[in-house]
Structure formats: structure tokens, C-alpha cells
Amino acid sequence: MFTEPVDFFVGNSYGKYLWRDTKIPMVRIGYPLFDRHHLHRYATLGYQGGLNLLNWVVNTLLDEMDRNSNITGVTDISFDLIR
């Protein structure tokens, strides 16, 4: 991940060290999840699990796009609360 960056990665609580070193967005799924409150209670299998997974991935990517839009000066992406 240091030589060939990816858009995001999926991992458990131990992945946060990789996230800190690489600054690549992380979606927390799996076991153990020590660093998030009650995330283990959300379904990860079946229809509801698929919706949860989609929600986590999209929100992680939107957070990263929002974070980068202020730094890089991208003008075609706006994450203002009021448009």
C-alpha cells in the first residue's frame, strides 16, 4: 500500500496503524473492533449487512473527498452544507 496506493481498504481495529501510516481511508469491518463503540452490533451478512457495507464504504469515500476538497482546492466538488 505504500508503493501502490488504493482508494480505501477494509480491516478491523488493527488496521488503524496501517491507516495512520498510509493515510488511506479505512472501512472498519470484522473482528475485533476495539476502537469503535458498538460497531459489532451491525449486521455484515445478508441483505441488511450488504446495505451496511455499502453505507460504510460510501460514507468513508465521501469523508475523504470532503477532506481533500479543502486542501487541494478542487473547485468542481463542493461539500458545503447549503448549495
Automatic annotation (TrEMBL):
Task: Spell out the coiled coil positions from the record.
Answer: none
Pfam families per record: Oxidored_nitro
- Every copy of the Nitrogenase/oxidoreductase component domain together lies at 2-61
- Which Gene Ontology terms cover its molecular function? oxidoreductase activity
Superkingdom of source: Bacteria
Name of this chain's protein: Nitrogenase/oxidoreductase component 1 domain-containing protein
User: Which species is listed as the source?
Assistant: Dulcicalothrix desertica PCC 7102
